[in-house]
């Protein structure tokens, strides 16, 4: 077990290292020069060279890479070209903003998805509930997150005018946690959270459904039924045993959903890490983009790692080698 | 692919392969040179709005009637700027626009920066040494009428050579909530950039909501004026400049009450009396001298385009100082006095060693003398500036809020739900007009500008190195069609030459306008020895 963890840990480090290396080279290979806009506005060549030097973009690619890796060892991604301050100072508040929509969205998606999955799985085979449940879940599953976001915006914001569709609301001069504990913020939270919930829900629903549908024919279910307990209690037994694949799937799904959240932040103008990442790429703000991609890579690797470990804990049949 | 740029090629490439199905003349095979190879037309991809694709399509459709095979290639904005606008990598043709920046009300950008030999912004790579020298020299002609004459002569030379041309001048827009605000004025011919008097300082509230909410796209990167490069105008709401350009295109006094040229390279500036910094300290010539000399010492990269000609400043008395220049600069007032700001010496002289990297928000040092005072900044979300009631042109409302919304739909939504009071860009102008037509509480202002949609041709490459071919392309360009199909009427067909007509005195109104005429374009080609094969394709002249 220990050897397995150690090996997976090393693998994870190699993956993160590879991702950051690829990112480094991608940003330097693409034909986009971070000084181009300034040159377009008239920056002199001397000033451009001074700026490139300050940003560490002079010298050979090899030299730049060595210093990048050295800094990476201490998680130093340098200063954002755009904001002119350390990238972590820029990213940390954005991460907090993202968590505000991501955590409730993912939890609700998992809980509601699992609940509905149980209902659909327990319903009679071929019934209207099962067929419509699978159909709707499959359609939503194939829908890109921006379509879900835009549909919610169109219905609840533009058409009905019930909910605001962009930003985090008026801060009213408040900072820190007080900024988030305001009615206006919570109202602004609804649509993006709903979008993430809907985006995350179908996988949970479908997985839970197949688990329950499989379990309902098992002998132990017959036994429970024979004991004369109510139908819903029987369903609960089947449901509980179907949670195992769901939980192990949750972690990689979380990682996968992060990509969807990036898009949802754009649609709802939510000032989170996803929107910042897209802006950073557009502005050719290499340090900021690299740090944001690094964070995403770490989150995905950690999620996969956690999934592997959890699986063994939950299912004793899994043996680590 | 990478070597050629990150272009939206492959399945996204819109191909217009039009090979002269046109009832024109066609030469016999033995008189023909090589067939003109397929050409690319690069343009801003849809991240900059649909107008460029439509413009490129309309133009290419007509150019195809010359017997050319054209491939339309959309290119993402920042890649386009890097590769073509300042990168010198133009392949054949490009259709794109240059912005209505405030400093471009001076003709230098139009006759020199984009047209002189070897300059980074001369992406069409035309090079005429004599023209370039004269275009450079015009900036040093202090006598205004002499300079106007020189600039007019340059335009004549330019049109004669036709290295590239302008198709339309862009119309920008302002849409605002007229149930809450009045006297929102147009900054024409400049787009509604921050810092200008119009519409910002002129606006008056009609309700108790005395905060003007600007629904905008982008964040500000820093409040340190030595380092800020993109939201230059926003920062100058806080830090007063010496002068401002008004909507008549004139440079008028602002923090400076007056200025006079002592000689060709020395300007004496007198500050307005009674100005105060936001912390209550008086604004004096010491502050102005300190700021200018600090800029000269540090040479901030972000400021280089405007300040590199300054050698220093010296105090004359409490309100008067002199600025010395390296060489005479006729555009100094219009481009530098409206850009240079005044830092409070008592704060900045106690700043950290690296002033360029100073985070003045973190250190509570955003103190200027401008019409607004810094209040809050929630990055990528909102900026709030309190009105400075002590300012000589204090706004008649309580504060200005800049919402960094990141996308056009959010800006539209903000206007509709009342969160935003005014929008000035990102939304296509036609959409602004539509919004105002559909909603009684919104008003639309059209702002004709000097922003220009260029057609660049690679002057270093055949057949574009042949004036006759370039002239034929010009004659086969239907500006009217581009205005309608590309810009839904929210543009103005451009006048001849590089200088936009809205620049008034700088534009040479004697230039002969070239009409759209495919027959004349084909005749131009035929006279120069070009010919058409039996399939209608254009061929080079025989060598």
| The CATH C-level class name of the largest domain in chain A | Mainly Alpha
CATH homologous superfamily label of the largest domain in chain A? MetI-like
- State the secondary-structure class of chain A: mainly alpha
Oligomer: heterodimer
Can you tell me the CATH topology of the domain at 10-19 and 26-170 and 450-523 in chain B?
A: Dipeptide-binding Protein, domain 3
Shape of chain B: globular
CATH topology heading of the largest domain in chain A: MetI-like fold
Query: What are the segments of chain B in which pLDDT stays under 50 over at least 5 consecutive residues?
Result: 1-21, 24-29
- Outline the biggest β-sheet of chain B: 8 strands, mixed
- What percentage of residues of chain B falls in helices of 4 or more residues? 10-25%
| Name of the top-level CATH class of the domain at 10-19 and 26-170 and 450-523 in chain B | Alpha Beta
Tell me the distance between the termini of chain A: 7 Å
Number of helical elements of chain B = 15
Number of β-strand runs of chain B: 22
Question: How many strands, which pairing sense, and closed or not: the largest β-sheet of chain A?
Answer: none
Would you count the extended β strands of chain A for me? 0
Rg for CA atoms of chain B = 25 Å
- The helix/strand series of chain A, from N terminus to C terminus, equals HHHHHHHHHHHHH
- How many distinct folded domains of chain A? 2
């Amino acid at each position: 077990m220990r050897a397995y963890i150690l090996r997976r840990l090393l693998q994870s480090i190699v993956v993160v290292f590879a991702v950051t290396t690829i990112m480094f080279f991608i940003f330097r290979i693409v034909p986009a020069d971070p000084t181009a806009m300034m040159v377009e506005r008239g920056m002199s060549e001397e000033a451009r060279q001074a700026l490139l030097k300050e940003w560490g973009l002079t010298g050979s690619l090899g030299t730049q890479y060595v210093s990048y890796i050295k800094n990476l060892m201490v998680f130093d991604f340098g200063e954002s070209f755009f904001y002119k301050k350390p990238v972590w100072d820029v990213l940390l508040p954005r991460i907090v903003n993202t968590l505000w929509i991501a955590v409730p969205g993912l939890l609700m998606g998992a809980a509601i998805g699992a609940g509905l999955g149980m209902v659909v799985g327990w319903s009679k085979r071929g019934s209207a509930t099962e067929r419509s449940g699978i159909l709707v879940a499959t359609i939503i599953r194939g829908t890109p997150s921006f379509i879900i976001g835009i549909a919610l915006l169109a219905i609840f914001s533009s058409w009905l005018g019930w909910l605001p569709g962009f930003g985090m609301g008026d801060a009213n001069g408040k900072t820190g946690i007080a900024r988030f504990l305001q009615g206006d913020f919570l109202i602004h939270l609804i649509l993006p959270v709903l979008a993430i919930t809907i985006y995350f829900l179908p996988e949970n629903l479908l997985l839970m459904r197949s688990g329950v549908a499989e379990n309902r024919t098992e002998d132990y279910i017959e036994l429970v039924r024979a004991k004369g307990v109510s139908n819903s209690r029987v369903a609960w037994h089947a449901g509980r045993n179907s949670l195992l694949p769901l939980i192990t799937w949750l972690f990689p799904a979380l990682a996968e959903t992060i990509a969807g959240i990036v898009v949802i932040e754009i649609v709802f103008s939510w000032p989170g890490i996803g929107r910042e990442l897209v802006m950073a790429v557009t502005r050719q703000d290499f340090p900021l983009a690299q740090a944001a991609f690094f964070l995403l890579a770490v989150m995905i690797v950690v999620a996969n790692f956690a999934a592997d470990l959890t699986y063994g804990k939950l299912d004793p049949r899994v043996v680590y080698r | 692919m990478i070597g050629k740029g990150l272009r939206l090629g492959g399945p996204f490439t819109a191909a217009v392969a039009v090979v002269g199905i046109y009832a024109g003349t066609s030469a016999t095979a033995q008189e023909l040179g090589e067939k003109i190879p397929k050409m690319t037309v690069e343009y801003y991809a849809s991240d900059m709005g649909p107008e460029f694709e439509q413009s490129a399509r309309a133009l290419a459709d007509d150019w195809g009637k010359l017997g050319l095979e054209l491939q339309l290639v959309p290119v993402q904005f920042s890649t386009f700027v890097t590769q073509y606008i300042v990168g010198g990598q133009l392949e054949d043709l490009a259709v794109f626009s240059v912005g209505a920046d405030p400093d471009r009300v001076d003709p230098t950008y139009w006759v020199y920066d984009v047209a002189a030999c070897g300059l980074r912004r001369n992406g069409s790579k035309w090079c005429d040494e004599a023209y370039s020298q004269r275009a450079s020299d015009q900036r040093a002609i202090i006598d205004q009428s002499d300079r106007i004459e020189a600039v007019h002569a340059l335009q004549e030379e330019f049109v004669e050579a036709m290295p590239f041309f302008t198709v339309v001048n862009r119309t920008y827009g302002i849409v605002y909530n007229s149930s809450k605000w009045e006297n929102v004025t147009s900054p024409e011919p400049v787009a509604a950039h921050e810092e200008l008097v119009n519409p910002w300082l002129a606006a008056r509230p009609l309700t108790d909501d005395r905060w003007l909410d600007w629904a905008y796209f982008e964040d500000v990167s820093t409040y340190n004026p030595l380092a800020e490069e993109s939201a230059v105008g926003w920062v100058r709401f806080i830090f007063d400049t010496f002068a401002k350009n008004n909507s008549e295109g004139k440079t008028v006094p602002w923090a400076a009450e007056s200025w006079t040229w002592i000689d060709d390279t020395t300007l004496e500036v007198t500050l307005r009396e009674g100005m105060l910094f936001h912390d209550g300290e008086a604004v004096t010539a010491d502050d102005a001298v300190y700021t200018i000399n600090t800029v000269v010492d540090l040479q901030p990269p972000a400021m280089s385009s405007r300040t590199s000609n300054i050698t220093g400043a010296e105090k004359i008395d409490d309100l008067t100082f002199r600025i010395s220049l390296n060489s005479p600069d006729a555009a100094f007032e219009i481009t530098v006095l409206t850009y240079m700001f005044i830092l409070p010496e008592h704060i900045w002289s106690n700043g950290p060693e690296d002033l360029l990297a100073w985070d003045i928000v973190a250190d509570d040092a955003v103190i200027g003398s401008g019409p607004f005072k810094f209040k809050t900044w929630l990055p990528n979300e909102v900026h709030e500036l309190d009105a400075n009631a002590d300012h000589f042109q204090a706004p008649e409302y309580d504060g200005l809020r800049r919402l960094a919304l990141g996308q056009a739909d959010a800006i539209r939504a903000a206007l509709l739900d009342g969160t935003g009071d005014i929008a000035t860009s990102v939304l296509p102008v036609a959409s602004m007009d539509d919004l105002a037509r559909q909603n009684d509480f919104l008003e639309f202002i059209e702002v004709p500008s000097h922003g220009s949609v260029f057609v660049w041709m690679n002057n270093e490459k055949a057949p574009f190195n042949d004036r006759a071919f370039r002239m034929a392309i010009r004659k086969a360009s239907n500006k009217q069609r581009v205005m309608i199909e590309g810009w839904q009427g929210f543009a103005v067909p451009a006048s001849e030459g590089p200088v936009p007509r809205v620049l008034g005195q700088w534009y040479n109104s004697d230039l002969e306008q070239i009409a759209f005429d495919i027959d004349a374009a084909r005749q131009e080609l035929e006279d120069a020895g070009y010919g058409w094969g039996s399939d209608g394709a254009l061929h080079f002249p025989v060598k």
